[in-house]
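can u pls check wat happens w/ adenosine-5'-diphosphate
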Amino acid sequence: MTEVETLDAPQAAPELDEYPIVVEGLRNAFGDHVIHDNLSLKVRKGEILGVVGGSGTGKSVLMRSIIGLQQPDAGEITVLGHHIGASTDDEGRDMRSRWGVLFQGGALFSTLTVGENVEVPLKQFYPEIEDTLREEIARFKVRLAGLAEEAAYKYPSELSGGMKKRAGLARALALDPELLFLDEPTAGLDPIGAAAFDRLTRSLADNLGLTVFLITHDLDTLHAICDRVAVLADKQVIAVGTIPELLALDHPWIQEYFNGPRGRAALCAKDEFSMKNDAPVAQDGSAPREPFTNTQESGA
Ligand SMILES: Nc1ncnc2c1ncn2[C@@H]1O[C@H](COP(=O)(O)OP(=O)(O)O)[C@@H](O)[C@H]1O
Ligand SMILES: [Mg+2]
């Protein structure tokens, strides 16, 4: 029931349950450099929304605006029913515990082990949890992110690129978030590692009921796991829809991106992905995946 939405289309009144993220009329500028101008976007509950656009079009700035790290010049952002920026300190704190973020560079603390990295948000939001329980929760999140438990005791410098991403994901999952923000999670991974990460993302979204805001350049990722794709161009989200819906639009960037040689190759690869999707996640030095049934009982 997806429909391609353009900014010209009338916007329905936001149903907060249906749309955990609503951005309306967003404007961001750095000096004279206008990044977003009257940008609007609604993310549906439970979907993996891919966010694409040329380099420097403002994908990361959009994500930072949604999570309150970038104060917009204009516009309204509502996340899980709360206005971002207008919240009291307590509300803002509560909101930050309801989403997890994997930043573009991973942003792990290099002097902390993976487990200690995962413990950082737990300590911050639930200081009353005992050390042993907090360590156990951290190890659980490490396994949930598809790493062997031993990885909890390693430092980021001891990990491969794919394992670092998973460690960052474990930290993003620390507080059992409802929303997951991933900024270019497969950038820099080899194709096998990237496909494994994609399967992990899809599996987590399905099993934990997450809504995922996924910035990516990776056409394979878009085809394989995204329910819809939002296209950033000309300072706005020019369209949101499934890839076939976007392909029906006569926009040069969209056509070039999805219908160019790389886009068509990714489409072919999609069938292969679907066939492999039932198999366990391929691991880079990681353990077989746990069933997800106990996830919501992990505390925090
Ligand atoms: N803190 C900042 N100060 C000045 N310019 C910035 C800042 N953050 C981002 N920009 C600029 O905003 C534009 C969009 O950045 P970004 O959102 O990181 O792009 P991308 O779509 O590649 O993620 C870029 O031109 C970038 O240089
Ligand atoms: Mg970016």
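Residues 30, 35, 53, 55-61 surround adenosine-5'-diphosphate (ligand 1) (CB under 6 Å).
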